[in-house]
Every structure is written in C-alpha cells, then in structure tokens.
C-alpha cells in the first residue's frame, strides 16, 4: 500500500508501507472494545463511603424498644438517620479490563488502515522547528495543508514540538511509543513522519 508523502510547494509523492499495518480490514467492534478498555483503565476508582458498621459511634440503642411513642431504633448510625452510614456504600475498585496484546495491536492496525483508506493519514519527511513557538507550528501545519484537528506522530519525543503544540487545543504531538487508540479516534487527521511510519510497521508487525 502507498501513503501520500507531502511537502511544502511540492507535488505529493507516494511512500510504500506494509499492508499488514496500513491495509487491514476495519473491525468496528474490536476498536470500540479497545477504546472502552483504554478509557476504563484511566479511571481512578478511589471513591469510598462508609456502611453503618464503619461509621463511628451508634453502638448503643438510642431509646428503649417500647413505651416511648417513638419509632423503634437500634442505632443512631442507621442509613435512614442523618449522619448514618450508607446502605450500599461505594468501595474502591479497579475498572481496568483485560486486553490481549494481539487485540490491542490489531485495533491500532485497523484504525491506522481506516485513516489511510480515507486519506486522513499523511506522511512527511520530517517536522522541525527552529524554536518552540506555537506560531511556527501553526504555519508549518498550514504549509502542509493540515486542518485544526491533527495528531502529529513523530519517531521520538521532540521537546520543541511538544512545547509548541501545548497551546493548540486540537493538536497533539506524540512519539510512536506513546500512541494510543483514543488519540487516533479523537483527531480528524494524522500527520506522521517517515521515521514514525517505519517504527509503527516494526512495532505492530
């Protein structure tokens, strides 16, 4: 399969890429499962409430069972009392879901393939900035005919690109090692360097 190699003021060329990574059939249910699992793993799961048994106090019966005219009560920490425990108290839990490495790789391949099929994945020789300035990155993306919502994939962490993109709400710069399915799903376009594409082929093979 071929991807478009774009550059400023030059006609688009083609870069040959692996069919296994960039020409895979799209599996919507698998992609959905992986994104849900990825988001679930990010949940803190630290909420905690106390049951009647865990709230301090309430060990003595507030009044005798009969003869007072009051409704019977056994503890001031009953869930129906103000200051009482919760009937079904929430406890800390782990929301993460088991995802096999093979499934995770297959989902990324399916998403990259879909982006390539719809011409939303483009390749560039390299993206270099003279200084970590937002306006320089905006101009660079404009020169490459990129929209406002774009994921820039680079071979390795680039501090200048990272700092320049921080003030752009819909532009993210990620090294291949940090690529995740949610980032691919959130952006309209993906702009990858040739080095990043080769690294993706190697990692997802």
TrEMBL record:
<keyword id="KW-0699">rRNA-binding</keyword>
<keyword id="KW-0689">Ribosomal protein</keyword>
<comment type="function">
    <text>One of the primary rRNA binding proteins, this protein initially binds near the 5'-end of the 23S rRNA. It is important during the early stages of 50S assembly. It makes multiple contacts with different domains of the 23S rRNA in the assembled 50S subunit and ribosome.</text>
</comment>
<comment type="function">
    <text>Forms part of the polypeptide exit tunnel.</text>
</comment>
<comment type="subunit">
    <text>Part of the 50S ribosomal subunit.</text>
</comment>
<dbReference type="GO" id="GO:0006412">
    <property type="term" value="P:translation"/>
</dbReference>
<dbReference type="GO" id="GO:0019843">
    <property type="term" value="F:rRNA binding"/>
</dbReference>
<keyword id="KW-0694">RNA-binding</keyword>
<dbReference type="GO" id="GO:1990904">
    <property type="term" value="C:ribonucleoprotein complex"/>
</dbReference>
<protein>
    <recommendedName>
        <fullName>Large ribosomal subunit protein uL4</fullName>
    </recommendedName>
</protein>
<dbReference type="InterPro" id="IPR013005">
    <property type="entry name" value="Ribosomal_uL4-like"/>
</dbReference>
<dbReference type="Pfam" id="PF00573">
    <property type="entry name" value="Ribosomal_L4"/>
</dbReference>
<comment type="similarity">
    <text>Belongs to the universal ribosomal protein uL4 family.</text>
</comment>
<dbReference type="GO" id="GO:0003735">
    <property type="term" value="F:structural constituent of ribosome"/>
</dbReference>
<keyword id="KW-0687">Ribonucleoprotein</keyword>
<dbReference type="InterPro" id="IPR002136">
    <property type="entry name" value="Ribosomal_uL4"/>
</dbReference>
<dbReference type="InterPro" id="IPR023574">
    <property type="entry name" value="Ribosomal_uL4_dom_sf"/>
</dbReference>
<dbReference type="GO" id="GO:0005840">
    <property type="term" value="C:ribosome"/>
</dbReference>
């Amino acid at each position: 399969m071929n991807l478009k190699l774009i550059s400023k003021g030059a006609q688009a060329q083609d870069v040959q890429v692996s069919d296994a990574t960039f020409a895979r059939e799209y599996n919507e249910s698998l992609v959905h499962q992986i994104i849900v699992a990825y988001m679930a793993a990010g949940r803190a799961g630290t909420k905690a409430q106390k049951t009647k048994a865990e709230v301090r106090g309430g060990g003595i019966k507030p009044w005798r069972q009969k003869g007072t005219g009051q409704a019977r009560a056994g503890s001031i920490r009953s869930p129906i009392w103000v200051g009482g425990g919760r009937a079904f108290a929430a406890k800390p839990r782990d929301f993460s879901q088991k995802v096999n490495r093979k499934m995770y790789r297959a989902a990324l391949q399916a998403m990259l393939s879909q982006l390539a099929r719809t011409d939303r994945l483009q390749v560039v020789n390299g993206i270099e900035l003279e200084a970590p300035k937002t306006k320089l990155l905006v101009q660079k993306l404009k020169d490459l005919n990129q929209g406002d919502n774009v994921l820039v994939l680079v071979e390795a962490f680039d501090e200048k690109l990272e700092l320049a993109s921080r003030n752009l709400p819909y532009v993210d710069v990620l090294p291949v090692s940090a690529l995740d399915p949610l980032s691919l799903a959130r952006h309209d376009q993906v702009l990858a360097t040739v080095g990043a594409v080769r690294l993706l082929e190697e990692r997802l093979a």
